[in-house]
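Technical annex, item 7. During the second reporting period the consortium partners agreed on a shared format for inverse folding records so that results from different sites could be compared directly. Each record opens with the tokenized structure and is followed by the designed sequence. A conforming record, contributed by the partner at site C, is shown below for reference.
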């Protein structure tokens, strides 16, 4: 198991180039598996979740060919099964998009329940409700196998009781092949929903309204594919680096991003005292010398609200700010587990249910901590960057699930960080 060793205190400055969106890529790879022809996907992030999903596609019979760094050609025509009962499926969340893709393409899907970060209970009832509305019969088999089958599927109106990124994408993936009109009401509006819809439309689907809370999908019998498509930049990777500027009193140019996707974070960082300069595809985030970092209140919400995937990083930043900061976590019931490690490093944080109150300004000191999940892992690295002395972040595999070339990117902006121990990532390309 690998660890990062971080010697804190360096001011970070320079440029960071952001990779493709992991969560868009997961939906888009599954979308490629629903096509009737090959697709070329560009700007794929070099992270382990993507490698796992490509491995699954290839194990299921798809032709998966890496054309170059971050560029893959997927030809799903050789996939003749709707079953994905292989262990890799249980290792991450995004594998569940094959349910929608296969249900639409084969009128059936059967696979293990997905894995993913431990953030409290993560039901998939809304996905199932959507599939059932389209006419699928659902059964939960032994050993955690989800089984969906249908004699006939037909477009339907589906109201999501709760805004769900995964359910919105999964229902879109199925509905593109289903005859008639499907309308998803109270749909999620995250940038990656729009990206998956754009990819599906380029493949030949007819989806309108992605990016709003009502998405209309008119099913098509054939989705020819034969496209080349570049994935949008990763909003969460970009946000993580943006926060490292005020965290270390630094000056970072975060490039290859869509600044619009960062608006909520940019506004918060400005409120805290950072200077934000926006260009066409970059944001420069600077902490002016002599200006104190001020505390702020955050509330996680579906897009365009503050993303839950930036919550642990923001709480870590609040540890440095002057005054009392607040974080309300509205999306997940158990996404404060990492706070015990921040306390171990000297942070003054009280939690009660959805609320964390951070009394900022305490000096953190290095300690052995763990990457409990992907974003909490990034937050631990951030804590190490500002702490006095040496921090060891153990079990860094979750971080590698979502941050490409993390070590190289951090070195390039001046961080003192090294990786020790055996690499935990399964090499695929
Ligand atoms: C996606 O998870 C992302 N994962 C998560 O990113 C992200 O935290 C989350 O969206 C919210 O933005 C992927 O895209 C692979 P949801 P997802 O369905 O789709 C409840 C990361 O760090 N819910 O929007 O699983 C659910 O419990 C990861 O990159 C139901 O109750 O999230 C949660 O409270 C972690 N029933 C809320 O909705 C359902 O059927 C939002 O979940 C589905 C969800």
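Designed sequence (site C submission):
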């Amino acid at each position: 198991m690998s660890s990062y060793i971080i010697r804190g205190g360096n001011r970070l400055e320079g440029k960071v180039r952001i990779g493709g969106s992991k969560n868009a890529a997961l939906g888009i790879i599954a979308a490629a598996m629903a096509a009737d022809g090959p697709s070329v996907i560009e700007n794929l992030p070099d992270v382990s979740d993507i490698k796992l999903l490509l491995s699954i596609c290839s194990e299921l019979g798809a032709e998966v060919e890496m054309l170059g760094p971050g560029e893959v050609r997927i030809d799903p025509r050789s996939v003749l099964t709707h079953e994905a009962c292989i262990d890799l499926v249980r290792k991450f969340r995004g594998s569940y998009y094959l349910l929608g893709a296969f249900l639409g393409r084969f009128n059936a899907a059967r696979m293990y329940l997905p894995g993913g970060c431990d953030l409290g209970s993560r039901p998939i009832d809304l996905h199932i409700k959507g599939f059932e509305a389209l006419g699928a019969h659902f059964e939960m088999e032994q050993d955690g196998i989800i089984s969906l089958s249908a004699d006939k599927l037909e477009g339907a109106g589906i109201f999501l009781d709760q805004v769900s990124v995964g359910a919105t994408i999964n229902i879109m993936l199925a509905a593109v092949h289903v005859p008639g009109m499907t309308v998803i009401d109270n749909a999620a509006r995250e940038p990656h929903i729009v990206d998956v819809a754009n990819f599906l439309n380029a493949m030949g689907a007819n989806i309108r309204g992605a990016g709003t809370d009502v998405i209309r999908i008119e099913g098509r019998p054939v989705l020819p594919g034969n496209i080349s498509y570049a994935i949008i930049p990763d909003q969460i990777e970009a946000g993580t680096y943006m926060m490292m500027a005020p965290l270390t009193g630094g000056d970072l140019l975060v490039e290859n991003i869509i600044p619009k996707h960062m608006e909520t974070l940019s506004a918060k960082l400005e409120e805290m005292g950072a200077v934000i300069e926006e260009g066409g595809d970059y944001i420069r985030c600077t902490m002016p010398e002599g200006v104190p970092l001020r505390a702020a209140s955050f509330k996680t919400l579906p897009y365009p609200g503050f993303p839950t995937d930036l919550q642990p990083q923001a709480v870590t930043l609040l540890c440095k700010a002057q005054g009392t900061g607040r974080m309300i976590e509205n999306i997940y019931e158990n996404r404060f587990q990492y706070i015990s490690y921040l306390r171990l490093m000297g942070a003054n944080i009280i939690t009660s249910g959805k609320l964390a109150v951070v009394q900022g300004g305490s000096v953190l000191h290095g300690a052995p901590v763990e990457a409990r999940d992907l974003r909490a892992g990034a937050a631990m690295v951030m804590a190490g960057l500002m702490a006095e002395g040496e921090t060891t972040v153990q079990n860094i595999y979750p971080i590698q699930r979502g941050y490409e070339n993390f070590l190289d990117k951090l070195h390039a902006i001046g961080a003192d960080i090294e990786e020790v121990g055996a690499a935990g990532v399964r090499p695929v390309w």
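The longest helix spans residues 235-248. The first strand starts at residue 3 and ends at 7. All partners now use this format for quarterly exchanges.
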